[in-house]
From TrEMBL:
Gene3D superfamilies: Homeodomain-like, Tetracycline Repressor, domain 2
DNA-binding region as annotated in the record: 62-81
Protein name, per record: HTH tetR-type domain-containing protein
Residue span of region Disordered: 1-24
Keyword tags: DNA-binding, Transcription, Transcription regulation
Stored Pfam families: TetR_C_38, TetR_N
A GO molecular-function descriptor: transcription cis-regulatory region binding
Ranges of residues in domain HTH tetR-type: 39-99
Amino acid sequence: MTDQRASPTIADHRSRQGARAGGRRLINQQGQAMGRKGLATRAKLVAACAALLAHHGLRDLKVADIAKEARTSPATFYLYFNDVTEAVLAAVGELSPATPAILALIDVDWGRSDPLPRAREVAAAYAAYWADHAALFHVRNLAADEGDERFRHAREKAVRPVLAILAAKSADAVKRGWVPAHIDAHAAAGTILAMLERVSAVIRTPAARHIEADAMIDAAAWLIACTVAPVRQAV
């Protein structure tokens, strides 16, 4: 039986914001501003959608399934969303590619101490966060890679904070002579993020069973350290 408890990162998020989001009122499909009750109902639908994606593909997910999981009706679903894809986009929109704790791990002076332990913390924390929301990340990335502009935009918006910090740290590493001058900071940041996403996804698959998870995290940490810290310390 599916756990009906709403995820605090999704279901409770909108309710805690009250009736406003981003300085404006959220509007339902009938053009009505949502109050606390409406926001809570919408949040339950979003959480139900996220929970079901762990066992259903985007194309297999039905409005009736989401409504049942949220303990409401299809008619109520359509009060808040036009279709399943719109609900999935709402769930995806609640996520970022990194928590504030992960961003804080990256946003340090990487020259002060041995960078490998911190780089390993970054890689391990990212993999753990990905594991917590693997279904949503997988659906988002698959839809974006297939050319859905809505999901591509959602992915680009989500990765901006972590890309910005990684690029700044990479640029600093180049400036301080730790990394070759021809390395483009933004390209390095994008490469590290792509590597972290792929490692976090692959580490959970049967194909990776012949490789120890800790070994993959160690390898990812070494690559991070070589990009943002003194290479002599990372070797």
